[in-house]
Write a structure and sequence with these properties.
The chain is mainly α and 149 residues long. 73% of the residues lie in helices and 0% in strands. GO terms for molecular function: aspartic-type endopeptidase activity.
Length: 149
């Protein structure tokens, strides 16, 4: 439990730092936090208190992310997907589970979009045509896992 909270803290602090300063943190920290949080999800799920805390941290940087210059009207941006994920957490333990899988989908989709756009610059905070689909796919997969437990 403590290790999972540490992993989540690393991910969320990095997300807030990236939003506030427009600087990319080293990818090793993202992978460490993602790996620890994913391990906790597969081992027993994220605690409810962490979900409330994570939602609060994400909402702080949400407005700036939504107003990011890379956001295109009519498309889902990094900030939009974070907001949807945060609101999903309010559905209780099931919502937390879905939000955690959806968050992983956002990062997978962002990375695939960056890769297919020529691997130039940062891979967050830019148009991500693959992120919404990855968010939906991994959220549905997480829901399926929840039902099968």
């Amino acid at each position: 439990m403590t290790l999972a909270l540490l992993g989540a803290w690393v991910m969320l602090t990095g997300a807030a730092w990236t939003d506030w300063t427009r600087r990319q943190i080293p990818n090793g920290w993202w992978l460490l936090g993602l790996g620890v949080a994913l391990g906790e999800m597969l081992g027993g799920g994220l605690p409810w208190t962490h979900g409330l805390w994570a939602g609060g941290v994400w909402l702080v940087g949400e407005w700036r992310a939504w107003r990011h210059p890379a956001h295109q009207p009519g498309s889902l941006s990094w900030g939009d997907l974070k907001l949807i994920t945060t609101l999903t957490m309010l559905l209780g333990p099931f919502g937390l589970w879905i939000a955690a899988w959806g968050s992983i989908g956002v990062y997978v989709g962002a990375f695939v979009s960056w890769w297919r756009q020529g691997r130039q610059g940062r891979w967050t905070g830019r148009p991500m045509p693959w992120a919404p689909g990855a968010w939906v796919a991994l959220s549905v997969f997480g829901g399926f896992l929840w039902i099968m437990r």
